[in-house]
Amino acid sequence: MNEPTVPTAPAGSSGLVSERTSGYHVPAWVELKGKDLSTLTQADRLALFHKILKQKIHGIAFSPYLDGQKPGIEISEAQIRDRLAIIEPYVRWIRTFSCIEGNEQVPRIAHERGLKTMVGIDVGDDPEKNEEQLANGIAIAQAGHADILVVGNENMLRRDLTEGQLLDYIARAKAAVPDGVPVSFVDAYFLFEQHPAVAEAVDVLLVNCYPFWESCPAEYALLYMKEMYRRAVKVANGKQVIISETGWPTSGTAFGAAVPSYDNALEYFIRTYQWADEDGVEIFYFAAFDEAWKTGAEGDVGAFWGLWDSQGTLKYS
For the chain, which terminus, N or C, has the lower number of CB atoms within 10 Å? Predict the structure, then answer.
């Protein structure tokens, strides 16, 4: 039986927010390739989830905020250490999103704990804040605590920087960091097709792939993500492609045919990491924790993307 065809996103369009309007050991769980997870008991599916997590996933999006907190407050080192301790046994890399307000401490602490770091410099429509972010991010890389330095996140999607401004920030970072530290930028996979100069400027292509935000039904989500990845590889011109974000929410309002639920999110995670292992794809899952402040343009669903809840309890226990 042939797999159903899932349409690719139209050029210039995506469900991602802003336009989001609307000698290797093969793990045992790989043997379930192609198996309909709905035929497994819930206990078996949870066991499979824990096997994957215990063997450590490649990476995860990490923000240290607790309930009642959001960007704009200063984060303490003690809080960062407490939050990192929860996820440390299960991941190899973390991805951060800011280099100010205490977040600049995260890469150093993560390195102390044996984690690799994709360090995010948050730039946007505030030039003064951009300079602070850029200076701190470069300092982190010069101190040896950035394994990949990321200048900007979804700025082409939000349109809060011109392509020229973005390329200038990337060039300044590349000129300042030590040799061997890749410098990149993160955005929706399809935008690198529309901005080849950005794809050319980065050392590695970092793409966000969200079948959920393109209204894809859960049963076709992995098939769709593979197509997103294929399109990114096509414009990478031989550079490595890393999926810098993907995930599925456990609660909230449906987005078209994409329905948030505990079961859909569980299956999406399992399928994602089966594919990652089979095809050697490096993936940063979104996200470590539920974050109540992340609603706004995303609606109520924005608060429920974590593998752990906001209190630090693993949802799939």
Answer: N
